Amino acid sequence: MSLLKGAATKVLGPVQFDEIAIAHHVLGKRAGFMVDVGAHRGYAHTPFVEDGWSVLAVEPDPANRRYLEDAPHPRVDIIPKAITATDGETLTLYTSEVSSGISSLAAFHPSHTPGPQVETARLDTLVAGRRVDFLKVDTEGFDLPVLQTFDWSQKPDVVVCEFEDHKTVPLGYTYRDLGDFLVGHGYTVLMSEWNPIVEYGQAHKWRRLVPYPADLVTEDGWGNFIAVRSPDAAAKAMRAGRVAAVRLRVRGAVDKARGK
Fold first, then answer.
1. Coiled-coil intervals in this record (predicted)?
2. Nearest to 207 by CA among 74, 79, 16, 7
């Protein structure tokens, strides 16, 4: 079945826009080291592992981490911690029956309930002495605090992180603070904006990929930043994004014609 799905994606185009696929395209098929913070069930790092990469997969939610532990890989090091500014604390992780993807250190959704106690660590502690080629962060509101614990004296080639003011304004920052942080560290940044979320756990609708700085089309928009180290890499990412957008429209038209 997975082979059939893969073939359909190649022929018809993707079901959803995928910022990780853009990063994968920019980085190329070469071995490297990826840090996946908020690894969930491993969807983001799987294509990199298949290309020979090593991965540090940070996932504090034991329900999600079980999927990684049940399919161990010698090049994937699973870290059962949450990233914060302080090593060795114990904090409450909030989980939701609505979506496995919104486990967070903050309860931002009515479905959140107190879950497991998790140990914390800083990124610079976990990756000390290792060169990171790709840093992906998706921590349901805590992306900027996570990035602030990284050692930016060694810059990853690509950084992908999530923004959503609904989650982050209560934590004291906006999408602009996150985008400006990346720009301030010398990155060329692209903003992948999605339409406002109707409900977590359901399919979301992608809107556009544009150079940052940029205003959101709607104030409750959300999405991901793709940060790269050079204008050439940004141009490569934009080209890949345009191709993906066209294929996404083709897929949508075909699915509509087929009554999906």
1. none
2. 16
pTM: 0.93
Q: Report residue 90 as tokens.
A: 């114990």
Q: Taken in order 63, 66, 67, 73, is the CA torsion positive or negative?
A: positive
SS (H, E, C) the chain: CHHHHHHHHHHHCCCCCCHHHHHHHHHCCCCCEEEEECCCCCCCCHHHHHCCCEEEEECCCHHHHHHHHCCCCCCEEEECEEECCCCCCEEEEEECCCCHHHCECCCCCCCCEEEEEEEEECHHHHCCCCCCCEEEECCCCCHHHHHCCCCCCCCCCEEEEEEEHHHHHHHCCCHHHHHHHHHHCCCEEEEEEECCCCCCCCCCCEEEEEECCCCCCCCCCEEEEEEECCHHHHHHHHHHHHHHHHHHHHHHHHHHHCCC
Fold designation for 32-232: Rossmann fold (3.40.50)
| CB atoms inside a 10 Å sphere around CB 199 | 11
